[in-house]
Amino acid sequence: MIADAFAQRLEREGLVVLEDEAFRLTAEETGLFHADLGDGRAKNISQAPGAAVRGAKADGAEAARLAALMSRFSDWARDLVTARAPSYAGTLEMGRTSFRPRAVDDAPISPRKDDRRLHVDAFASQPTGGKRILRVFSNINPAGEARLWRVGEPFEAYAKRWAGNARMPLPGEAWLLERLGLTRSRRTPYDALMLALHDGAKLDPDYQRDAPRREVAFPPGATWIVYTDSTVHAAIAGRYALEQTFYLPLSAMAAPEASPVRILEKLTGRTLC
Q1: Residue in 43, 48, 166 with CA at minimum distance from that of residue 114
Q2: b or e along 4-25 (b: 16 or more beta carbons within 10 Å of the residue's beta carbon)?
Q3: What is the CATH T-level fold of the domain 3-268, as seen in this structure?
Q4: 3-state secondary structure labels for all residues of the chain
Q5: What's the maximum distance between 2 C-alpha atoms anywhere in the chain?
Q6: Digits of tens for pLDDT over the chain (273 positions)?
Q7: How many CA atoms lie within 13 A of 264 on its CB side?
Q8: C-beta atoms surrounding 221 within 10 Å
């Protein structure tokens, strides 16, 4: 498959499963699969680019093995994306790497943080300003357990449910949030609208019960690449997965008309970022 065709498919379909790609663990890394690896507070073990691993209570040699695993997966995921879509390489921004040892059905912190509910991704403290959120997942479960997702309706149908009633930021509100350190950058109208879509879905029990969806099983060894800002999804079962987040500007898109910002601008009739 030529690179442009892969990028077109990924942007239009939102989720692509790569059946011929698997992230292989080393013998040393298999020792990291135990229940008390996490610190019990964070949902996932994570590492931001250039930062220390957070959310783990490992120390010494185990901490070093964990950091090496996450670094190796981060490099592997970047190489995977750029090999399939070389046009992304020059603008691919590295985000957080996460290791997810907890079972999906562990009790969530709050409904807004409950990823078992259908939603699209939007980050309250980290506005994207219209950049796409691209994520690479690998199921590394050592016990043969699949990871199960629900995948919902197309983004435009999803957005129409809440876009018309979403509250836009008041004048000066985005500046104040950034000034107070509540957001890492200035929240645009696009970011505010995406948060409204995220929260609207997660907090609507009727939508969660009745919305269109299909179930997708990712067996051990499976890798899938997802634009999680446009793919309505929910994780419903499984444990032990690795995930790498990337950000891409709209200018890198092979099909910009399929991006959330262009769809929302069409629905609202306004420039959002």
Answers
A1: 43
A2: eebbbbbbeebbeeeeebebeb
A3: Jelly Rolls (2.60.120)
A4: CCHHHHHHHHHHHCEEEECCCCCCCCCCHHHHCCCCCECCCCCCEEECCCCCEECECCCHHHHHHHHHHHHHHHHHHHHHHHHHCHHHHHHCEEEEEEEECCCCCCCCCCHHHCCCCCECCCCCCCCCCCCEEEEEEEECCCCCCCEEEEEECCHHHHHHHHHHHCCCCCCCHHHHHHHCCCCCCCCCHHHHHHHHHHHHHHCCHHHHHHCCEEEEEECCCCEEEEECCCCCEEEEECCCEEEEEEEECHHHCCCHHHCHHHHHHHHHCCCCC
A5: 55
A6: 454 899 999 999 999 999 889 999 998 898 888 767 887 777 789 999 999 899 898 888 888 999 999 999 999 999 999 999 999 999 999 999 999 888 888 766 788 889 999 999 999 999 999 999 999 999 999 999 999 999 999 999 999 999 888 888 888 888 888 889 988 899 999 999 999 999 999 999 999 999 999 999 999 999 999 999 999 999 999 999 999 999 999 999 999 999 999 999 999 999 998
A7: 27
A8: 15
- Separation CA 208–CA 163 (nearest Å): 17
Instruction: Tell me the C-alpha distance between 181 and 3, whole Å.
Output: 39
Report in angstroms the alpha-carbon separations of 32 from 28, 66, 262.
Answer: 8, 7, 42
Report pTM: 0.94
Per the structure block, which two tokens stand in for 45?
């073990």
- The ranges assigned to domains in the chain are 3-268
